[in-house]
Each structure stands twice: as C-alpha cells, then as structure tokens.
C-alpha cells in the first residue's frame, strides 16, 4: 500500500488510541444483525399509498409495537399508537381536538413520551449507540439520551427524570418531541430502501415521491422504463419528452408538467386548439377526486392528440437512422393508406378510427409542421430549465442504476432479455455484439452520457435512452413492441397485444434464474432476482414468488389504474437478519381514514426465505466495505504505531 495514503489516513487517526477504537468499533459492528432492507416498486406517482407503506415499514412498525405492548395495550390502543408513529403531526392535532382540558393533555403527553422512549431501545437494538444518535431529532438528543439510558439503580435520580419530562411538557415542547421520536422510530425500523423502478407516470404526484426520496436516510433506485423516459426528456430526447406529456394528458395529470415542474404548455395548447377537436380515443382518464369541467376535458383531449402526433412523427427519423434498433415495424405513419383510412401492421390490415391526422402530409407523414417543431423545441427548453425537474433528475441519476447486485440479490426493474432457449439475447450496437450484463452496462453508459450532454438531442446516446423505453431488447421494457399507435386508432384488440420477451415466461424456471444470478457474479444458492414492471395478477392466481423462490416480482400495482387487474394494492418485500418476507397490501384509501379510524392497511405476509442463522452485517455489502476499512486501519497501525 502507498505510504502516502497511510499518511493521509493518519491525519484523521492521529493517535494509536483512535485507530484502535475505530478497529474495535468496526469489528464489533460486523457482528451485529444486518439491518432491514425494504423493497418497493412501481410507485407510479401514488404518493399517499407510498407514504403509508414507507411510514408503516410494510407492517414492521406495528409488529414492533405489538412485541412490546401487546400485554399492556388493547388492540385499539395499539392502533392509535401505531397511527401516531406513522402520522404524528395529524394524529397529535386530532387527539388535541378531542381532549377537553389541560390535565388530560398533560397525562396524554406523559404517557405517549414514555411509550415512545420504551419502544426506541427495542427498535434500535440492532444498532450502535452512535447510529441511534444520528436518528434522533437533533434538538432533543441530550434530553432523549438522558431518558433512554436512565439507570436508577441507586434511586438518586428519580425526580431528575421526572423533571426532564415535566419541563418538556410545561415548556411546550411535547408536540415537537413526539413528532421527532415518531420519525426516529420509522427510521430505525427500516435501515435501507430499494426502489425497484417506475416512480413516474400514471399517478398524480411523482414529484412529491421524489422529494420524499431525496430526504430519505438511505436508499438506492433501479430505474424503471418510465423513469428513464423522464430522464430522457431532461437529457434532450424530444421523443421522450413528447411521451411524458402524452402520458400526463392521458391520465389527466398535466398539473405535474405545469404546476409541479413549471413547464409552459401554452404553445402546445395553441397548436392543439388550432388543429384538433374532441376525440373519444384521447379523452383523459377520469379521477373521482379530480373531476374535470367539460371545457377542461376538451382542452386536454386536444393537447393529448397534438402531442401524440408529434411523438409518432419524432419516432420515424430515429428508427431510420438506427437500423440496429430493428424497429421498422414501428414506422406506423408510413404504413397508413390515407385514402382508405387503414393501416397494415405485422402483415394484417385494419381500419383506422378516431384518427386525428390534420397536421400530416401523406406524402411525407413523419414531417413535423414548422409549428410542431417550434412547440417541441420550446417545450424542451422549458424542461431543461425547470429547476425542480433538474433537482429530481440529478437525484435519480445519482442514486440510480439499471440494475444492482445488493447483498447477494439482483435488483432489476424489467428483465434480462433472453431468447427462447433461455440464452442471453444478443444485440449488435455499432458493429459489436453485447449480451447480459455487458449489454446492460453499455445501456447505462449511454444514458449517463446523454444526461451529461443535454445539448445533444439526436446523437446515439440520446436515441438509446428512447430505446430503453421502448426497444425489444431493453432490459426495462422487454416486449416486442409498444403498440401505442394501435391502442389509439385500431379497434381490434388483437393489434394491441405486446408480445413479451421469453424472460417473462422463463423466469418461472429455477435453472434460468440461477444462470442469470451467475451472470452477475452472484451465488445462485443464496441469491434472488427481484423484479418490478409486470403487474402480478393475484386475482388470476399468479404467484409473485417464482422459480423455487429464486425470483420475486413485487409489482402488485400501487398504481390505482392497475389495481383492478392485480386485485391488490401492491407488494413490498422485507429482508432482515431472519430472512425475506413478501408483503401483499390491500387497498389504501386515505391517510384521513387511517388517522381517524386507526384503520391500517391489512397486509398479508409470506415468507420467501428463512436464514438458517441470523445474518450479520459482516455478510452484507456494507460489511464488505467495513472490512476494507478495517484492513486499512490495521495497515496504518503497523505502519505508524507498531514499531
Ligand atoms: O395502460 P397504459 O397507460 O395505456 O400504458 C400501456 C403502456 O404501458 C406499458 O405497459 C409500459 O408501462 P409499464 O412499465 O408500467 O408496464 C407499455 O408496454 C404499454 O403500451
Ligand atoms: Mn415498468
């Protein structure tokens, strides 16, 4: 090892005692049980449902409360207390509104603070004191530590402790303290969060989810195809940009574009008003909590058509300049017989309905009108100048990857493209053939390049981002083609079918999963593949745990739009030192219902895997890093102090 590095390290550890203390500390941590990992996916803008799952730790918070208080509290009291931990601000307000006098409130404060102080040591029993300290509300660390570590063996301090509590209450600090402690408990119960893709699209509040994630203590993200679409838009892909606006229009979510991200839709609206009218195929989806006036609905219908047509036109030149995308079938505008109003795709001819081709010149159907070009260019400027979007996209890049090997498992939103024999599918890019992990690494490097060269809009890297959204061998999409055009304009549903990559059938097979794990240098005896992306249809009896538990699919549909297909409201996964558990969530109605009725989402647990022996930090990713630190410190010890 370079002595220079050791000299630098010695600046931080400038005494023998400091080195020794750190080695002892790290060695000891390796023997603590591993922290709880929490996996979620396909959040699709459903901020409230996500918040609930995050705050209740997929049921873990209540479980810990039960462990401690089941003999001391009624079921009703446990519910109330759990709700307080999930939503402290709202619950405190509600309780206060019900209490009639100061004494009652005083007693309530006293009891609740004591209960929380009782729960915290249990919730933090896997952690070092220093880690617990970091999780405590900063302004109250001293007070809380006094209460947490109270020892009154000699009965000298009884009144001292009582006084601390009394002063907090009389000085009006209880609400703040209880709120802080509630968040401490949430944080202690989940050590690390994995978001296995698709934060964006369909639901109303992806931006709020991003803000939550930015403030979360520890997480990683595996991008989904919808996240990549947003990254692509920000990175300069006009076709990705057209797509995100189209999807927002379709789901009546243009507020995200206009209000949340401050992107100006006026030029698009002007164009839309000029060329389009009502059209049943483009009316926005209805939400019972966000009703639209007739006028608003009509406006969105027009915008939806305008941006969809721009999208289809923008696809054409990319398909033509990138032969190897192998997407000629998607040159749909050029497959239309404009006289007969029909289209021939995949060898079949269909009549078209609900067409809106006012801006199209049949002799050159993919040509953007000057007005359309101006609109999309202005939109791009607006997107790339949104401060909030910049913040969210940069975070998505910083915490995100296409896939992640973590603690022996492979986390990936979509798939590893396979051929029908279960071999890794090959793709030729710029004259070289790639497959498996190498293909994914290349995809990721293109995305990162495009992101850091936002001014380049038609280069290979930017086109590749769109390929990740919709290409046959994209690990995020993994279907033969996206039939968006057919879904709008062809009645026959057979034309809407999107043929899935073999992966989605072969992943039922243990051997296939084992080989994929090996491709990523993971141990097939212990690892699992964790996927999102394809809604698991519980109603039809589909099992999210596949291939003898090697494969777990956790897209149960947070997305309200998909809940009737899945029959549940999302899966999440927990992985602690005892093993892995899948949690199936029932419909989440509203936060208010939880706060008022203590009605928690009922969740059903299924054990995926049990550890034979409790797993320790030493066996985890973090443990490996700590071991490296220890070995450095030992070298420093020899070099500096052991002569
Ligand atoms: O249900 P919608 O919103 O029309 O979206 C359908 C489209 O979404 C996709 O399923 C992609 O989104 P997912 O990643 O959520 O599956 C496409 O394959 C399909 O064409
Ligand atoms: Mn997806």
UniProtKB/TrEMBL annotation:
Its EC number is 3.1.3.11. One of its GO terms (molecular function) is fructose 1,6-bisphosphate 1-phosphatase activity. It comes from the Bacteria. It is an enzyme of class 3 (hydrolase). Pathway: Carbohydrate biosynthesis; gluconeogenesis. It catalyses: beta-D-fructose 1,6-bisphosphate + H2O = beta-D-fructose 6-phosphate + phosphate. The keyword Manganese applies. Belongs to the FBPase class 3 family. This is Fructose-1,6-bisphosphatase class 3. The lineage of its organism: Bacteria, Bacillati, Bacillota, Bacilli, Bacillales. The gene is fbp.
């Amino acid at each position: 090892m370079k002595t220079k590095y050791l000299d630098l390290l010695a600046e931080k550890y400038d005494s023998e005692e400091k080195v020794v203390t750190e080695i002892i500390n790290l060695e000891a941590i390796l023997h603590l049980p591993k922290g709880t990992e929490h996996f979620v996916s396909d959040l699709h803008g459903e901020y409230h449902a996500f918040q609930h799952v995050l705050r209740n730790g997929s049921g873990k918070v209540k479980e810990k409360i039960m462990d401690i208080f089941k003999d001391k509290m009624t079921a009703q009291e446990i519910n109330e207390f759990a709700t307080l931990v999930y939503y402290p601000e709202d619950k405190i307000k509600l309780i206060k509104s019900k209490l009639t006098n100061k004494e009652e409130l005083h007693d309530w404060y006293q009891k609740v603070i004591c209960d929380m102080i009782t729960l915290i040591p249990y919730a933090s029993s896997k952690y070092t004191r220093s880690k617990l300290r970091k999780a405590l509300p900063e302004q109250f660390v001293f007070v809380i530590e006094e209460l947490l570590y109270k020892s009154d063996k000699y009965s000298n301090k009884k009144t001292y402790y009582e006084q601390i509590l009394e002063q907090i209450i009389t000085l009006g600090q209880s609400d703040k303290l209880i709120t802080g402690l509630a968040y401490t408990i949430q944080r202690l119960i989940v050590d690390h969060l994995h978001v296995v893709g698709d934060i964006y699209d369909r639901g109303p509040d992806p931006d709020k989810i991003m803000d939550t994630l930015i403030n979360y203590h520890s997480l990683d993200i595996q991008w989904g195809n919808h996240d990549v679409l947003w990254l692509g838009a920000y990175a300069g892909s006009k076709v990705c940009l057209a797509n995100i606006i189209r999807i927002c229009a379709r789901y009546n979510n243009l507020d995200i574009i206009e209000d949340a991200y401050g992107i100006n839709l006026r030029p698009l609206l002007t164009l839309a008003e000029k060329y389009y009218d009502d059209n049943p195929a483009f009316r926005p989806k209805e939400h019972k909590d966000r009703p639209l006036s007739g006028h608003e609905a009509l406006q969105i219908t027009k915008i939806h058509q305008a941006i969809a047509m721009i999208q289809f036109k923008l696809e054409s030149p990319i398909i033509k300049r990138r032969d190897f995308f192998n997407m000629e079938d998607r040159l749909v505008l050029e497959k239309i017989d404009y006289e007969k109003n029909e289209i021939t795709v995949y060898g079949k001819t269909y009549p078209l309905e609900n067409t809106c081709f006012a801006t199209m010149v049949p002799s050159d159907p993919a040509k953007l009108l000057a007005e359309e070009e101006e609109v999309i260019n202005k939109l791009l400027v607006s997107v790339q100048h949104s401060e909030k979007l910049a913040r969210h996209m940069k975070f998505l890049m910083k915490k995100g990857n296409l896939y992640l090997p973590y603690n022996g498992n492979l986390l990936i939103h979509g798939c590893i493209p396979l051929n029908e024999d279960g071999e890794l599918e090959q793709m030729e890019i710029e004259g070289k053939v790639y497959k498996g992990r190498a293909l994914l690494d290349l995809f990721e490097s293109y995305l990162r390049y495009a992101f850091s060269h936002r001014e380049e809009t038609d280069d290979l890297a930017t086109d590749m981002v769109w390929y990740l959204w919709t290409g046959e061998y994209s690990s995020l999409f993994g279907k033969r083609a996206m039939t968006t055009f057919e879904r709008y304009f062809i009645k026959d549903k057979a034309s809407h079918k999107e043929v899935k990559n073999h992966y989605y059938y072969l992943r039922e097979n243990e051997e296939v999963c084992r080989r994929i794990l090996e491709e990523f240098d993971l141990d097939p005896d212990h690892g699992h593949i964790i996927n999102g992306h394809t809604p698991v249809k519980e109603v039809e009896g589909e099992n999210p745990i596949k291939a003898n538990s090697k494969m777990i699919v956790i897209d149960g549909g947070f997305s309200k739009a998909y809940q009737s297909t899945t029959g549940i409201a999302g899966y999440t996964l927990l992985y602690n030192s005892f093993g892995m558990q899948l949690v199936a969530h029932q419909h989440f109605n509203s936060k208010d219902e939880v706060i008022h009725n203590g009605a928690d989402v009922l969740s059903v647990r299924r054990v995926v895997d049990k550890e034979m022996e409790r797993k320790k930090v030493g066996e985890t990713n973090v443990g490996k890093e700590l071991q490296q630190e220890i070995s450095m410190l030992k070298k420093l010890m020899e070099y500096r102090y052991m002569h």
